Every structure is written in C-alpha cells, then in structure tokens.
Amino acid sequence: MSDADAPRTANPAELRARAAVLDAADPLDAYTAHFVPGDDLVAYLDGNSLGRPVASVPAALDAFVRAEWAGRLIRGWDELWLTRPRALGDRIGAACLGAASGQTVVADSTTVLIFKLLRAAIADVRAADPARDELVVLADEFPTDRYIVERLAADHDLTVRWVDAPLDAGITPELAAEVAGPRTIVALFSGVAYRSAWWADMAEVTRVVQAAGARVVWDCSHAVGSVPLEFDAWGVDYAVGCSYKYLNGGPGAPAWVYVAERHHASLRNPIPGWLGAAAPFSMTEGYSPAPGVGSLVSGTPPILNMVALAEMVTLIEAAGMPAIREKSIALTSYAIELVDALIPSATVSTPRDPARRGSHLTIDHPNSAVAVQRLWAGGVIPDFRHPSGVRIGLSPLSTSFAEVERGIRALADALS
Ligand SMILES: *Cc1c(COP(=O)(O)O)cnc(C)c1O
After folding, report:
1. Is the peptide bond before 387 cis (omega within 30 degrees of 0)?
2. Dihedrals φ, ψ of 222, to 5°?
3. pLDDT beyond 80 at 4
4. Helices 84-92 and 303-319 meet at what angle, rounded to 10?
5. CB distance 154 to 146 below 8 Å
6. Which residues pair with 187 in a beta bridge?
C-alpha cells in the first residue's frame, strides 16, 4: 500500500473516493477499531498532542484498581510495581527505540527528564574537559526545551548557542557541524520537530556532534511511535520522549528516558531520590544509586498512568514499527495531496520528502486560529500553532484515510 500505487489526481471527488480504496488496502485498518470512540468525534487530527485511549484501557484500569491496588495494597510495591518503570521502559525500548534492555526507564515528565539528562551530560563532559561552556539548542525549539537550557546555562555560568533552522525544517548534519565545536558540552535537538515534523538524520547529527567531543540529548516526543528509532545502532547518547502522544498513555502519562549503556558508570541523577536508590527500603544513610538507568527515577513513579500506556505498547508490539511507519507515510502523503487540492491558499510547512517527515503536517494559512476554534466545536480536531499554523497529526494505528479526508475537507471549508 505505498502512496506511489495510488492514482494521482487533484480532483476532489476522486481524492474522496480514494479514501475507501486506501482503507480497504490498509493492513493496519483493523486497529482503528481498537480505540475508545469519542462522543462527538468527526475527525481526530491531533493524535500527536494527545493520543486516543486504547479500547482495552477501561478494563485494564478497573483490573489494576481491584486486583493490584485494592488486592495487594502496600505489598504491591515489592511484588509488582518497583520493577515496572524498567520493565515498561524495556518494552518501549524494544518496540520503538531500537534499544537493548537496561537502557530505558519510565519516570517523570519529559520536561523533568530533559533537565536530568542535560545536567548529567554537563557534569560528565565538563569533568573530562572543564573548558567546554556551550549548550546548543534551536532558537525555535519546543518551549520547555529552551527554558531548561536557559535555566541550566544561567545556573552553571554557561553560554547558550542558539541555532537558526528554517521553520519548515529542523536540525541537519551540516548545521550541527557548523555549531558543534571545542566549546560544546551538549546539544538538545528534536528527533521529529514539533512544528514542521522534520525528521532529523539522527545518526549523522549524533556522529557529527560526538566528533566535536560533545554529546546529544534527543527529544523524541514527536518521534516515538511515529518513526522507527534505532538508538543503539545510531550511537545515541541520551534520549527522552512523551508517552501521551503517539504512545497513547493518557494525560499526564510519565515520559521514558534512554541512556546508552556506555554512559551508565558516570550517570548522576541531579534529583537523587529513594526510589532510584540501590536499596529503596533499606532507609540507609547516604545515597547509593541503583545501577544504570534505574537511578534516574527520583520519587514514587506514577504506576496508575503506566497501565494505559502499557495497553498501547501492546498494540505497537503487535503491529510493529515498520508497518506503522509505512502507514504513516501513506497517511501524510494523502493528507498533503488533499491540502494541495482543497486548500491551495495554504503553505505546506512540512517536508514533502517522506523520508524527512514524521507523522504530522503543519500548514500555514492566515485564517488558522479562527478556523481551528470553529472546527473543535464541531468535532474536527486539528491544532493551532502560533503564528498561523494548523497542525494535522495522523496517528497511524487510530487514524483512517476516510477520517483524514473528512477532516481536511472540513478544514478547507473552515479556512475559506
Ligand atoms: C510535547 C512535548 C514536550 C512536553 O513535555 P511535558 O513535560 O510532557 O509537558 C516536550 N518536548 C517536546 C518536543 C514536545 O513535543
């Protein structure tokens, strides 16, 4: 079901008819029925901001409350829950990240984990080379990422090296080579850019920054579950990502964090807590960290939120990232054709080359803000991104081609 097999046409009626053909040929089509339907939902185009709940989640939550929480009470920590952040981390690592076990753990929010990783990287790199004093980040990076970089720079007397990348693209190996040098400590980049959906050449960018003696923290909030990641093969140092976007863990679901095994010996959590300690219930004096990535846990992890997340990980394990990626490319290619045909006054601010594109598109149009507000009221749900972007997120397991067609047709009406 590659996009190239579909008949090319800019005719709206033929484009509309093609949705049924694409859905019928989609090997993952049955998965769209595995999600709780929304009451007024016409087209959900924001799975990149908050994934829909998997249909098995209500029963899984009910079973957790009865059997584990009520059933085991405090015994649950010893019997079930203490190992869950690492066990679920390993499953995400295997299914989505190309990460061998022992390098991924589910812990705090993405924001908090970015802080922990950058702080750990600063300590490590400066221990070897105290003269390094620069943190690298894109000038239009996601706000939380920029805020943390600025805070750490201010607190540790470092300089922020702001990088300008085009708004419809993101970090490239060439740009990384320009900005990484003998002063660089660590660069924080997005695997898939939150606005443009630019999928960076993560292996090559990592190589270029490491060649300058520095490290990279990859924020994979829009990449995990949408594009296949190969952290071990790419030599990634550190990565972090949301689990409520394409991992459908629900509002407030805890993020995951990856640290390559070669950095474990020197890894230091800047927020040491008892549940990241070697022996949490020994209540000993002095902090002795758990081995490896487990030490990045600080306080009590949100076990309840992990229940919903695990249900989506099960679906991803069954479908497999290669098939998910193939459908994502077909969905976004079809969506771009629809935008070109139905909204000629819009600019597609997302790579047209599918190899450089994640699973969402941003189109820019002067009427975006008003149109999105009107669409939300009618159950068509994209999102607005300042100053004039409409972001259309296509979550491969929950989105049908018919839904994309309905949504973009409604968007065309609302924008006109
Ligand atoms: C969504 C998103 C976040 C969100 O961080 P939280 O701590 O979960 O609120 C961070 N970074 C990027 C790039 C994102 O897209």
Report:
1. yes
2. -100, 5
3. no
4. 30
5. no
6. 136, 216
| pLDDT tens, position by position, 352-381 | 999 999 999 999 999 999 999 999 999 999
Tokens of 341: 């045909």
Biggest CA-to-CA distance, the chain: 72
**Band of residue 222 on the pLDDT scale cut at 50, 70, 90:** very high
CB 273 within 8 A of CB 295: no
Atom of ligand 1 nearest to the CA of 109: 7
How far apart are the C-alpha atoms of 77 and 74, rounded to whole Å? 6
Report the C-alpha gap between 279 and 165 in whole angstroms.
Answer: 45
Annotation says 244 is catalytic: yes
Cα(372)–Cα(378) distance, integer angstroms = 10
The CA distance from 376 to 52, in Å, is 16
pLDDT the model gives residue 283 = 83
Assigned fold of 3-55+320-415:
Aspartate Aminotransferase, domain 1 (3.90.1150)
Helices (H) then strands (E): counts for the chain? 14, 13
Q: Residue ranges per domain, the chain?
A: 3-55+320-415, 82-315
Ligand 1 center from residue 12 Cα (angstroms): 36
Average pLDDT (25-49) is 96
Around ligand 1, the residues with Cβ closer than 6 Å are: 109-111, 142, 144-145, 190, 194, 219, 221-222, 242, 255
The closest-lying atom of ligand 1 relative to the alpha carbon of residue 245 is: 1
82-315 has CATH 1.10.1200.120 classification: no
Indicate the residue type of 206: T
Pocket test for ligand 1, best of 138, 171, 242 (most atoms within 8 A of CB): 242
